[in-house]
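User: Good morning. I'm curious how magnesium ion would be positioned relative to this chain. Could you predict the structure with it bound?
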Amino acid sequence: MIETKYLTVSAEYPEHEAISEAASVLNRGGLVAFPTETVYGLAADAFNDSAIRKVYEAKGRPSDNPLIVHIADTSSLASYTAAFPEVGWTLARTFWPGPLTLVVHRTNTISDLVTAGLDTVAVRMPNHPVALALVRELGRGIVAPSANTSGRPSPTTAQHVFDDLNGAIDLILDAGETRIGVESSVLDITQSPPVLLRKGGLSREAIEMVIGRIETDPRHDLIQRSPGTRHRHYSPRAEVRLVGKGNAAELSKTLAKPDLKTKTIGCILHSIREFPQASNVSVKVIGPELEKISHQIFASLREFDKQGVDLIVVEEVEEEGLGLAVMDRLRRASSRDE
Ligand code: TXA
Ligand code: MG
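Assistant: Good morning! Here's the predicted structure, ligand included:
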């Protein structure tokens, strides 16, 4: 156990003192949790192998799952990739800083611990003053996976980070709730057409508007390219079951199952308004807009987990825009295969 320090920082105008303290922790090879516009990240100096090892350790992350390098300006791209393709520039101009991670061919100077030995590297420029200030203050890239214990829902508040990683990291920068609530979209632009390896905070439609058709249902061999998608993810401790959007009858039927009579159940709903009242069932209504649902979904799963419910029933959302990312996370949270 190490002592985890906790600092509050302004989300709009981060205080230089806090940023400078965080950067010196990174400089010493320590770990800092910090906010981005998507979820909280766990930062380490991208050029310090022993710090990167600590990231995997603190999260309990499988070593075959590579990390995203966070940058603050495109001039630093040359440290990570020798050939940033034209389509990358088009995307960067349009969407950076923002919730889009680009997978590109890597240079040899970047550590294998960052890329998990792949011949590509993932880079993104986050759209959050604290994240950008931290990268600038350190003066080089930071690697940052989501700041949760591996397999758990990603953290959208500093409290979530504390719940998972207190005692395992050096510092938590608290700048309030993250805006988007699901992680960045990961797009492999070494392929043509580019392949969406992870559906996230930037919608497929928005990307296609700018660069035309992309592949969104990668074939199996392409899944191999995104090791993260193989592992179990986003799961609360409770079992998760999904019910169709607006399907009050399916919800009632699910809750009426005899094996659930003795269980405590949390329901996360956005459009279903009629639900059976029972002492073992609590209901949380989120949304109803997709932006609000994505903003609240991980926090809601964590909240019911904290209450210790046995089962969480979640109403599905439409698979368009941010709904693609939300449904992807919900399906993974509800699958018990890995
Ligand atoms: O929004 C986000 O992306 C957050 C914030 C903190 O920036 N970060 C995040 O990192 O979600 P993480 O480590 O939880 O997820 C990174 C994803 C994983 O699915 C990983 O497999 C994939 O990016 N990835 C990283 N490098 C890759 C590479 N070279 N090729 C393919 N996939 C890669
Ligand atoms: Mg993650």
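The first strand starts at residue 5 and ends at 8. The chain has eleven helices and 14 strands.
Let me know if you'd like a different ligand tried.
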